[in-house]
Amino acid sequence: MSLRSLLLPLYAVATLFSRLLTLPGLPAQVQVTELLFPLLLWSFRQELWTQVRRFPRYSWALAAYLGANLASAGWAGDAGAVVEALARVYLGILSFLVLANESCYGNGRLLAWWKWSTVAVSAGCLLVYGWVMLGGTTPAAMVARIAEYPYLGSVYRLRGTANVYGMLYLLLLPGLFLAYREWRQGRGSGYPVLLMLVAGILTFGKENLLFPAGVLLLEAARYPRWATPLRLAALALVACLLLGTHLLVQRSGSELSEPGYTSGRTVLTLGRYHLDETNYVANKRAALLIGAAHPWLGVGQGQFQEYTEALVPSGRYPAHYGRFNPHSAWTGAFAETGLLGLLGLLAVVAALFHFRPPEQLGVFAAILLLFLVASVFKDVMNFRGLWVVVGVYLSECKREGKFAMAPPPE
Q1: CA–CA separation, 286 and 299 (whole Å)
Q2: Burial bucket for residue 329 (CB in 10 Å: 0-12, 13-18, 19+)
Q3: What is the separation of C-alpha 242 from the centre of its chain, rounded to a whole number of angstroms?
Q4: Rounded to 5 degrees, what are φ and ψ at 266?
């Protein structure tokens, strides 16, 4: 067992500790994963170009997306935007490093480490949550009490190793599906699935609807006779998720004391109840306004917050909001990288779903679909685990066209 064969499994494990493995003296975005990346890049330098040639459609689409990001950052002339653009280049390269690792060693060790480390993180999070429920203090702010949470009132939300509650769910999602696949294939116990599922539920995030939607899609592929009703049920869950993200039902006279949840605009009133826009709608509207004012290359990565402040005096952005991120990969791409960045992102997604995995719907295809749903209300493009998923997904797909390469010898 060589050190090189362990680098990517270690990287996958490190992605689960997005908040706890930061490096002292450096920005919070720089973590242990960024120490492993140069080692990965050097170790697989000879295999990288081969992997780029294996998937030309994806390679060209990714180059267009990353090129637009670099051009936007250069046009903005902001050092922070340049750093973020370079970070996206690094993440794009990461997907090819996953392919290089697969061609040399297979993905067995990577997926096993990723699954079991996710189980371990989930178990640790549940222990911390239980300790807090018994009156203990929460270490590293892993659990937070929300005094007034929509629909649920006072709750203790599990943040765990992530920066925010919903991101913890996305951190757990790949390992959760890996364990689910093994259980359905009769190769593993269902207890790891249950453990991770409970940890995800305790985030009390809307993201809890992602896993059942994905399970319905996988079961539809497994049982063609029931495919249509199962897919319709998955679509209904996704519709509930997206509607519930952007609209909030409140009873008159019982508005939330925390004003950050809503934009202050009411869409519909029915008797004692009214339907309010959430902050997700306000941020998408602001992103569209900013993008329309800077249509080609946007305002630069990470600059959305600065430009929303200019919208406040004219009433086009809520004055009571703090400094929000775009909370959408799509409207965020339009605001920060313009039409070129948005089209580049669309090209990457189209290139990925051009491929067909060996199964009718592989588990990593399902995970990518769920990340695509989450991209509507989350800035998922900076999520390290997503690019590992992309690499594994491509490695499981059929080789493309005339650039197809023979599989590596065992």
Answers
A1: 13
A2: buried
A3: 15
A4: -100, 130
